[in-house]
């Protein structure tokens, strides 16, 4: 074994996974499930959630920061406007409403309880 064994219950493993660490795993789970992520696994202060082929690890560390970060996570999806409406209807605070960007993506932005910005987007025709 070379250290590349999948996490318990995971069958594919040749890719990176973002781990979001915050001080309250329950707040993290509530936020991500409101965005349509499904819980794949929960073990104490650790959880795996997924949607649209994206898997995230969520972990709790009471000393973790909740300050906004210079890092964000871009999540590609097929129907940005439907996802925006779903998030808004479930009470998720929207930082930036859906808009077409000059680089060919339509996106909206939310911030998780740990200070991480998520940019949900889908391809559109680039602006001239």
How would you characterize this protein structure?
This protein has 2 helices and 8 strands, in the order E-H-E-E-E-E-H-E-E-E. It has helices spanning 25-34, 80-89; strands spanning 18-22, 38-43, 46-51, 54-60, 72-76, 94-100, 105-111, 117-123. A hairpin with a 4-residue loop joins strand 6 and strand 7 (105-111). The longest helix is centred in the N-terminal third of the chain and has 10 residues, at 25-34. It is globular, with a radius of gyration of 16 Å. The model is unreliable at 1-6 (pLDDT under 50). It holds the Pfam family Glyoxalase.
Give a quick precis of the structure.
By secondary structure, the chain is α/β, with parallel strands linked by helices. 16% of the residues lie in helices and 39% in strands. The chain has helices at 25-34, 80-89; strands at 18-22, 38-43, 46-51, 54-60, 72-76, 94-100, 105-111, 117-123.
Topology (elements, then pairings):
Layout: E1 18-22, H1 25-34, E2 38-43, E3 46-51, E4 54-60, E5 72-76, H2 80-89, E6 94-100, E7 105-111, E8 117-123
Parallel strand pairs: 1-4, 5-8
Antiparallel strand pairs: 2-3, 3-4, 6-7, 7-8
InterPro entries: Glyas_Bleomycin-R_OHBP_Dase, Glyas_Fos-R_dOase_dom, VOC_core
Domain VOC: 13-123
Organism: Lysobacter arvi
